[in-house]
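# nightly structure sweep
# worker-07 picked up a monomer target from the shared queue
# config: single-sequence mode, recycle default, output format = structure tokens
# input follows
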Amino acid sequence: MDYENTPVSSNIEDRRGQGGGGMMGGGGLGIGAIIVVFAISYFTGINPAVLLGGAEMIARNTGNNAATTQPATTGPAADPNDPMRKFLAHVLGGTEDVWTTILPQQTGVRYAPATLVLYDGATRSGCGGARAAMGPFYCPLDKKVYLDTSFFRDMKTKYGGGGDFAYAYVVAHEIGHHVQDLLGILDKVDAAKERVSQTQANALSVRVELQADCLAGVWAANANQKWRILEPGDVEKALATAQAIGDDRLQTAARGYAVPDSFTHGSSAARAKWLTTGLKSGQVDSCNTFAQ
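# output follows
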């Protein structure tokens, strides 16, 4: 991924080096812990979305217990020359530039940037506690994306999904949730989930996640048109990442089989399909996963 010519965002809070952010038991778990979470779910009967985080959807229901967010780190972890921070500042800047242009053009809604919070192990969010095992997530209560950067390392070493564009896809997916928030989609889905069964609520969660995958593709298509960010192999790596974190693959790895009614993020094939849809169209209206 050639990102050097993309804008740089200043909307980053770097909390790395703050330990557990005042939380008890903040561990350094990465994406590998997701498999363990599904195993715990299997033996305890607890919804895996609760254990795993699926935090984009779950945290919205914890607003009354929202924790106080923390200021940005001022120590060495916040070094603006840190390669990971520089890369993420470019990715975030690219999302801001693209969505500021195309969201009003395509939907009539003004784009307001989200903040990216970097942390290690555990921290606090406007939606409650954040832990590395939850994976990256978006909190609509404070309009921030939370990311433990060890997630990227684990993507590469455990799932073969590494590479700059694959990492950018992860961030763009979470910004996709922010776009959904600005469009009022998240509130509508939350209201609908209160009126349906757990199985139907899970299906709505899947639609939300697949739409965020598609919106990540919309961003990439427009960013590539503007800055030529895509290099040979980039799309394939991003698709490999989308497939690696499909519910069916994660559940099969944890328990030996998949239970579609319990999916909260979508199958590997569905995630790859919707990312591809956004990449091909570059249009928000191509991402109506709720009509499929």
